[in-house]
Protein 1
Amino acid sequence: MFESLLNHASNGLIPTGIVGKLVFLLVMTQLTILSVTLYLHRSQSHRSVDFHPALAHAFRFWCWLTTAMVTREWVAIHRKHHAHCETELDPHSPQMFGIGKLLLNGTELYMSARADPDLTARFGRGTPDDWIERHLYTPHCNWGPTVLAVLEIALFGVGGMAIWAVQMIWIPFWGAGVVNGLGHWWGYRNFETPDRSTNLSPIAIWVGGEELHNNHHAFPSSAKFSVRRFEFDLGWLVIRILSKLRLASVKRVAGTELRSKDGVRVERQPHQASLSDRVRVMTGFFRDVMLPALRDESRQSRAGIPPMHLRRALANGGRWLDDDERGRLNAWIETRPYLRTLCRFRAQLAVLMEQRDVDAGARGLSQWIQAAMASDIGPLKAFAQALAGESPAAT
Ligand SMILES: [Zn+2]
Ligand SMILES: [Zn+2]
């Protein structure tokens, strides 16, 4: 009797080998990642896709069972991140807290963000507020992982305990650490967003497509995170399959790709937000005007040229550089009148793109276009001409 109890405790109801347990763990963690990216992020936070009510509830249940995260709190923290990105109000910016803090202790930042009493009232609107949310999912959010622990220990014995422990650190590490931390710190950028978001990998599978974080910050209300031909977003593939099954309805998608000689542009879509227009214009300016000029400069004289990361910082006027680096970059620019002129045009354009007064913005843009066309810088003139064609009201 004692021996059989001991045997059950160590093997559980379903004795499986290490491979079986690893497959189970992978399926469980991928279901959790998909629930977070599809339901909490793309659907609840940004309203870019709607799910069939039964499927939406299944996602919500799964988040409760495997993460203890409350929909309204997650959504509010995430919307606050977009609203105050890379400022002291951003709940999890590696620029403010340091990348080490994000990678090793992102959960602490999440917990302190959820303690803000105004958080959900300001940023959590439109999230579920039904009976089960008020009586179970919110007040007893820790019951989910407790139930999960009991189930997994019953199924796999001691191995179930290990599976559960890995699941509990999965989202804190991959979500709070890797996406929120590295996704604003390391990787490549397709778009000159006003923040430091990056794409961690063009093949975005492991965290359900969230690896394409710079694309997401450029087009936050798009259900699809991939924009270039070589990028793949697993979350978007699942949404497409769910749409075919009539379980998902896509509300917004970022523009389709148009290739230009120097890079990629994204077509304007009628339903895209103005943020996307700002990102598109500033990205186009850097790619089509600044980058060719920087390449020419480095071809002409390699002596004294600042390293690549300093030259690339011209995309945002050196906003994220420290004082020493900015001084070094400015000193170099001062010796290059051609680049100095382009930097001045970029700074003026960036201010115009932030202009909230529509009439003043159109007037300013019209003057900017005229000044750019009157310059003797070919790429700048071509860019201004294209901009004039897009915004006839501004000319
Ligand atoms: Zn972000
Ligand atoms: Zn987002």
Protein 2
Amino acid sequence: MNQTKKILIIDDEPDILVMLKKMMERAGFDVRLAVNGDEGLLSFYEETPDLVITDIIMPEKEGLEIIREMKKQHPALKIIAISGGGRISAESYLETAGHFGANRIFQKPFTQSEIVSAVKSLLETD
Ligand SMILES: [Mg+2]
């Protein structure tokens, strides 16, 4: 059985969503998008994805909260946290994301090959 893996991508920046969607679809994944934390959680509860890529700094609901809630519901879920550079606190947010249960953390900008290979290796360890 080789079912297409589902990836949920949550980011408040449309450009990032579009870019990540293209990258993941090219890599053969089934992609769903959410523009904020609330929408991301709704999507998560509707259908559990195999992996989540979430931004950390978003209005409405922060990425850290989402990571904590998703891991509580589904401890085996793989999560990649991403955050923008340029903000003073981006690095420490990412560090906290790791403590909250994110499996990998990336600071923007990241390359296609690094994020795609992170996704693939996380999904392989199932
Ligand atoms: Mg953001």
